[in-house]
Each structure stands twice: as C-alpha cells, then as structure tokens.
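Quick question, first post here. What does this chain look like in 3D?
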Amino acid sequence: MNCNALVAQSGAPSPVINASLHGVLDGCRAFPSHINSVFAARHGVEGILREELLDLSREDPRELNLLRFTPCAGAIGTCRYKLGADHHDDYNRILHVFAAHNIGFFFYIGGNDSMDTAHKISTLARLRGIPLIVTGVPKTIDNDLGDNSGSLIDLTPGYGSAARFWALLTQNANEENAGMCPSECVSVYQTMGRKSGFITAAARLGDPERRLPLQLYLPESHHTLASLASNVNAALSRHGRCIVIVSEGFDAGPLGEKHDAFGHIEYGASETTVAQVVVNHLNRIGLRARGHATGQVPSVLQRDVSIYASCVDLDEAYEVGRHAVQIALRHGSGFMATILREPGPAYRVRYDKVPLDAIANAVRTVPKEWLTPDGLDVTDDFIAYARPLIGEHWPPIQLEHGLQRFARLRRFPLPRKLPPYIPHLSLIHI
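> Answer (accepted):
Ran it through. Tokens below.
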C-alpha cells in the first residue's frame, strides 16, 4: 500500500496536542515505502469537507520539530463538527476527498466525540470496500476518555499538563489568599471539566500534605450551593480563610448556557460562570469572617499555556502519536492508540490499542473511592495516580527575543480537485 496520510485535530486543544501531531509525522516518515506524503486538514473534519488540505511534507523540518513544544491548535486548526447520522452528503464528501488525494491513512487527534467521528468514517469505508485505514490519537485535558476501569486508557495526553497548571496555580493562589484574607477571605477558582472532575482534583497536587484551607468541588461529589456555603463557613470559623476550587460542571443552577455542535455546554460562552454564581451566593448569605469572596476563571489558559506543560505529558503525547502509525500499519483500521500504566511502584507506561467502537463517546469520571467521605477532597490514591503525570521539570521552551518561539508553518495548500462543498454545519467552532 503506497499512498498519502492525512492528520487532523478535533475538539478543544491542549498544551501537548501538537506533540501528538509531531509524533504522527515522525511515525509516517519512518515508513516511506508505505506513506508518500503527509497532509493535514485545516480545522479538522471541516477542512476535509471543504477540501482545505495542507501539505506538511513541504514544511521546514526545523519548524515541524518545534511543534512538540507549540501549544493549542493554531498550527493546523481544530473544530467542533458533528457528523450526523443523516448527513450522507458529508460522509460521501469525505470519502471523495480521500480518493481524490490518494489518502489511505487517516489519523484523527481528539477526545470522545472525535473517536466517534473516526469510528463512523472507518466503518463506512469498510462497508464500501474502500482501502482506508483510520486510527485515533487520544487527546483531552479533562482525562474523561475511556471508562472507570482504566483498561481502555489510563490517562489522556493533555491532562498531565492541565494538572500541573492547577497544582502550581493552587500554590500561588494560597500565597494570594493568605496575604489578602483580611479583605478577601474566600478565593474561588473555576476549573474546566463538564461531568468529570479530574482537573479539579488536580488542585490537590499543589498541597499533597493537606496544609491549606482548600476545598475541592467535583461534579462527582454532588454538592449544592447550600452545602458549599456551609462548608466554606466552617472553614472560615477554623482558619479565617478558604480556597475553593470548583468545577465548571458544578450544579450552580442556570448559567445562560451556550452549546456546541455536539450539544455540550460551552461554559466560556455562557452568560455567567459557576464561579460568579458561587461568589454571589457566598457574599449574599454572609461569611463568618471579615471580607468578601472573590472569584477567578482561568478558562482556556489551563489548556493553551505551554510554559506549564508537563514534560511527562509532552513525551507521552508524542509517543502515542507515533504509536498510532505503527497500529495503522500493523493492525489496520478501527483502532485508537492508547496509554496503559504498568503495574508496580515506579511510574511506567506502555502503548497499546483499543477498538474505536469501545472508546467512541465513552466518558470516564473520578472513581468514588478516590473521593473523601465528605466530598470535599480526593484521597491519597488519587495523588498516587496523578502525581507522576505532572513531572519534575519545566518544559524546554525555546525563546526568541524573550518570547516563546513556536512552530511557524507556512501552510502550503493542496490544489483542490473537487467542486466546492458547503458542510451541513457551516460555522467553524474552534
């Protein structure tokens, strides 16, 4: 089989998403007898539908190497585009684009919904007898890909960096709160994470000895505004201050929610935030200490600031992308590359595969046994699970004139071979 490969990204970015892209590129270049050129779709599956493809084989190798330390999806773009069951024109268009450009390998970097898209394309190609190999590459800072058994995937690239961001932020937030507590006795911070509280839980990594007046509110804990206020006031009675880390998926009532193409809430686009609702409620009912509650929402910073990236996460994101190519060549279509933890006290992982239909739309939550009985913290078992993921060192970010030096791709467009096409969902959601 001698053809071209196409790689695309989908969903929200991460600090290490381009490390996986770099891994896919290096993996493809290791098999020149099977793969001629490597193309990228501009803005995910929407770029395929619009036939907006880039020739990565023409890029400067030095710039491609910088992808490993370039965050987010600015290099080739991402999207939130749902391939509906009745969007037959979309499916036909994708296969026509692949055929027109002799694409025999498709690597899709993304989370739950992206693996569903990859599974649909793989299944359709097989049913039509088209020799297309589709392989998924995992990505999400939420760590919610898979199931609670951990047998499908132990961790997702992107989570270790988000966890490191919150571990370091918690340390710094404590210094702020300790200094300002006479006037700002409660500091509320909102994390990302709709239904899964892995990111919120990671704040505990900034205080593993549990010395701080820190409370964590994961979606899995099922706390309410009333119980949160009671817990905060109890902490104020004991310590005179409190740090609250609350998930965006905390049930704070209506937020004026906006939704993406998959029906998921886009909290950053909603009319208010969970943090603001919590702050308003605490200040309204009154606090058992002098001062007020204040709120902060780091929002997309936790997924797009490369200086906080975990070196462990960067390495694993690269390796799982490279492994995806090996899966495609050795095992054929319909798999996602996965990361599994080896048993034993030392942190070691191995790279394997899992069927796309087992991972598509699967959602993992924080196990109940990793929550403390009061639902305000996570256990030492969670710390043992997550601590190795944030690494020990700062990432080797290259600087130029004091600023971070990211990859500068020239984005060589492939000539279009097909008539123009308008996707069913015509708006790009990045």
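The first helix runs from residue 17 to 29.
The chain has 13 helices and 13 strands.
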